[in-house]
Amino acid sequence: MEKRRHEYNQGKKDAVLPFQHAVPAALTLTNTDYQMKTTRIMNKIIIYLSAVLLLCSCGSARHYAAFQYDNGDDYVSEGLYRIVDRKGRIGYADETGKTVIRPRFAFGYPFEGGKAKVTDSGERKEVAGSGSEHWYWESDDWYYIDKQGNRCENQDTDKDKTHP
Predict the structure, then answer these.
(1) Which positions, given as ranges, span the membrane (predicted)?
(2) Are residues 88 and 110 in the same domain?
(3) Residue 89: its pLDDT value, please?
(4) Exposed (0-12), middle (13-18) or buried (19+): which is 94, by Cβ within 10 Å?
(5) Residues 48 and 100 grouped into a single domain
(6) Is residue 138 part of a domain?
(7) Which terminus of the chain is more exposed, N or C, with fewer CB under 10 A?
(8) What pLDDT sits at residue 70?
(9) pLDDT for residue 20
């Protein structure tokens, strides 16, 4: 096979030019330019996908840890169990893990008879002689909520400061 050489015929009408000379220099990309454009496109794709994942996962389905009770996750009581957020606030989730009452209480007890005893204040106290293994919550402001998180009317609040 014969090698074809392209000659530059300046001044002639039918000059044959190699491809790289036929395309204006402004439209050609060097290897470095191509890599930079590819990197920018990939970065945009990564940012877009990250935003989509963040928006999809943060909506109404926040993931909270189960409240730790008796050396394990809290027990389900009347279809709900206690959950806790990063700040230590208590809320409630159903058996599938869906948040029913977002964490907003300083402390809350499991549901009994369709209501749960909760408080927005107080402090955690150790049971004397338990070696830091058992504790209770002390508060002067206990009240009851229903399974939607609404404060119950006509509630029987206990006279004592702790859960019975």
Answers:
(1) 45-65
(2) yes
(3) 94
(4) middle
(5) no
(6) yes
(7) N
(8) 75
(9) 53
